[in-house]
Amino acid sequence: KLEIVDDVVGTGPEAKKGDTVKVHYTGTLLNGKQFDSSRGKDPFQVTIGQGQVIKGWDEGLPGMKVGGKRTLTIPWQMAYGEKGSGASIPPKAALKFEVELIEIVAPEGGDAGKAAAKDGGGAKAGPAAGKDGGAKK
């Protein structure tokens, strides 16, 4: 069973299935051996619930708020399964991820995106984009 522990509850918007998010993460085996981390690099971007990542992430990220930190303890069935992954994740390995939600990326189909597309891509997608239908002055 997937275990979710909120270490820090964020104060920003809440991520849900279908959102594209940027996160920092550190992945370890249950013995504490680290196999991957985004720390010191650009945040990792993923769309939740699209099967782009292991099932434990697709089910463990929704409900996080921006600024929050969460620990996911993921059973092998929701991670890399019977085969494992590469040299660092053995077969049937349960995994632990510390995940920090950095931001929720505006969806492509949002108002700002529609306004920009209607103007042939010339509209600046600022905070007010889309409210006036992207009309040129």
TrEMBL record:
Signal peptide: none annotated. It catalyses: [protein]-peptidylproline (omega=180) = [protein]-peptidylproline (omega=0). Pfam families: FKBP_C. Residues 18-105 form the PPIase FKBP-type domain. GO terms for molecular function: peptidyl-prolyl cis-trans isomerase activity. The keyword Isomerase applies. This is peptidylprolyl isomerase.
